[in-house]
Each structure stands twice: as C-alpha cells, then as structure tokens.
Design a protein that fits this description.
CATH class of the largest domain: Mainly Alpha
CATH topology of the largest domain: Endonuclease III, domain 1
Number of domains: 2
Order of helices and strands: HHHHHHHHHHHEE
Helix content: 40-55%
Strand content: under 5%
Strand order of the largest sheet: 1-2
Distance between the termini: 18 Å
Structural class: mainly alpha
Radius of gyration: 20 Å
Number of helices: 11
Length: 261
C-alpha cells in the first residue's frame, strides 16, 4: 500500500467536482463490471489481513503475498506468530521494505492482541489504531475488508482517482476520505474502497492512464485524458476498435507535461 502523493502529482490542478448524478453513475458502472470486489492481499482470517496490511505500507500487494504465502502457513494467528519469534519473522519478510521495523511492530501487535483481545483482531477503530504499525488507513482497510464497515481507506490510487474524477477533490488524504464518505451513495459505500483502488491500479494509472478502456471516460473531467467518446457510449483509443482513419490525440511527453501524475 503506497502513500498518496501531493495533489499536484495526481495531475489535477483544477478541482472539478462531479455532480451527485455523476457519482452515482461512476459506482453503478464500476459495480456492473465487478459486482464483488475485494482486496488483492491474500489472507485467511482477520489477523492475517491485519498483518498483510501492516506489511503493505510502502510496498506492493504482490510483494506482500509472496512473503505471506510461507509466513501464514507457519504462523496463522497471533499466538503462532509470537512463538515464531522476531528473527524468524524477519527471514520470512526480508524482501519487503522496512522489514526490520515491521517485524518489531508485528511482534508488539501480537503481544497486545493476546493480552487485550484474546488474540482476536478488534472491530473498533480506536483499538486498532492503538496497535503498533496501525494508522488510520490500515484501520480503515481492516474495518472495511474484515468486518464490512463502510469506511474508505485512501491510498495513492484512491487519492489520484478521487481528484481526477472529481468525486472528492482534496489536497490531503483526510479531506479526500471525508469527501468520499459524504459523496459516495450509501448503497455503494461498502465496496467503494475496492472499486476505486482497482480502478486506479489498472486503469487510471499515474503516468499512463488507460483512458481508451475506461468505462468512466465520458464522466471524467480530467483535462489530460486520452481518447474520444463515441456515440455508442464507449471510449475509443489505442486498444479499442475505432472508425477507419480516426486519429487519437497523442500524449504529451513527460518532459512537457503540465500536470499529469
């Protein structure tokens, strides 16, 4: 889970705000394409999800999954993780950035889970945020994914998408989170985090947004999007069918960009 960039890095200097009807359309389309979204972190229980999210700070889900595949086989819960010991834990996660710090935090977290919660992960924000290595974003991921609480954890992908689409323009993570909680229709709120992070990871990417295959193309006010919207209601670009001889706008080179992330 990577930390959000500054607003300028999202490529959105003008904070256009999508209408309420537009917000409804965004999530209706994302839901139609992926009715049951979930995290790409691999886990078997709430404890494993918590550990995976702690490990994902400034790392990728792929790197975390590679490490936890063997780790969770020998330490599936807090008691087993604590018994494993910090040095053995480090050996399992040493391909992940900041693994020394994360190993220490995980050991401390396991101690507190066993002492204060019987080894279970609490479904309470304050209790989660009292654990070493757990901040608001991590707590939001666990509350939403493990317990179904309609929270929205804002990472770099969601920060970018929320600003580009005008869903919840804001210059800070907290501002974007609060804006999303106000503006995402209630019926979509429980899954909004997953839809937005996946859209940012695979479509609305920082340096090369895949506008040509974006189902939100016509709704998006992002000034540097690439492609055209057809009468049939589908985006046309380098990877989509288009009329003969139709030319698409060319992306500006990174050196000449005036605001793309």
């Amino acid at each position: 889970m990577r930390h959000p960039p500054t607003l300028a890095a999202t490529g959105t200097s003008r904070r256009a705000r999508l209408s309420a009807a537009g917000c409804e359309q965004v999530f209706a389309r994302l839901a139609a394409g992926n009715p049951h979204p979930t995290t790409e972190l691999c886990y078997g229980n709430a404890f494993q999800l918590l550990i995976a999210v702690i490990l994902s700070a400034q790392s990728t889900d792929r790197a975390v999954n590679k490490a936890t595949r063997t780790l969770f086989a020998v330490a599936p819960d807090a008691q087993a993780m604590l018994a494993l010991g910090e040095e053995v834990l480090k050996a399992h996660i040493n391909t992940i950035g900041l693994y020394n710090t994360k190993a220490r935090q995980i050991m401390q977290t396991c101690t507190l889970l066993l002492r204060d919660h019987g080894g279970a992960v609490p479904a309470d924000r304050a209790a989660l945020e009292s654990l070493p290595g757990v901040g608001r974003k991590t707590a939001n991921v666990v509350l939403n994914t493990a317990f179904g609480v309609p929270t929205i954890a804002v990472d770099t992908h969601i920060f970018r998408v929320a600003n580009r689409l005008g869903l919840a323009p804001g210059g800070t993570v907290r501002a974007v989170e609060e804006g999303l909680l106000r503006r995402v229709p209630e019926r979509f709120r429980a899954n909004a985090h997953h839809w937005l992070i996946l859209h940012g990871r695979y479509v609305c990417k920082a340096r090369a947004p895949a506008c040509d295959r974006c189902v939100l193309f016509d709704l998006c006010p992002y000034p540097d999007k690439v492609g055209v919207w057809t009468a049939s209601g589908s985006p046309q670009g380098s990877g989509a069918a288009r009329a003969p001889n139709q030319k698409l706008p060319r992306r500006r080179s990174p050196g000449r960009s005036t605001g793309r992330g």
